[in-house]
Amino acid sequence: MNVLFLVLASINVVIWVFYGLLFFSNLKKKPIFRGSDCSDNGIVYPSLSVIIPACNEEESIRQAISQLLDQDYPDLEVIVVNDRSTDRTGVVVEELKIKYPQLKVVNITDLPPKWLGKNHAIYQGVKQASGEWILFTDADVMFSPDSLKKTVSYSLENSLDHLTISPDITYKGFFYGGFISFFLIVVTGLYLSSKSAGIGAFNLIKKSTYQEIGGYEAIAMQPVDDYSLGKLVVKKGYKQSFGFSKGLISVKLFNNLFAMMKGIEKN
Question: Which segments within 55-195 are labelled E, that is strand?
Fold first, then answer.
């Protein structure tokens, strides 16, 4: 019995090593963003609209908005869509409007038929956006200084239409960390196999591209809206890149798997 177990374990190790080598060899062939430095050499930064859907996000939204609006980006607006929050999210956002005049707030009280909540919130936010580029992010994502310049300049230098980034993730516990690592591998694998990706923490897209692919109206009932948006970009023939934050953006995930499931249920 022990011999059989050792044989099966050895076969399993060989299989994982084989797939690991295959995975990383394919990874080198794809354009992967790795938090490259901003060259800032004569770059004329386009106007940028950051859209944050928020439903009961009073714990994190003040810090998230402040980190965005304190950045040295020349033409920036942040649009927060308060989507039927029942906590102090609305109060916090209105307080921030006093400090940051470039902050726009959209309040939603009802969800129309044939729309999912987050998708509808983003759709309403885009209607208020004036930027040439749009960044979709979440209310618990934290941005490091110059992260907007670095990602926009990378997109311009590589003639991208869409850039999506997996954030740095903070978590507690070995088991939970293993689950997060597996999730990131799956996301990267999807990009390598399907040639498309989309992560809700950071979806940067040209407004003209967004409009050409049909925007959130085309994915109104898609639960995995971020990935669905990325698929549309590639399907319509636009240039996309996926990558890793490497210190640019971060998010603190749930303290345990139960809390994570509750968060997914809310989304």
Answer: 76-83, 103-108, 133-136, 141-143, 162-166, 168-170
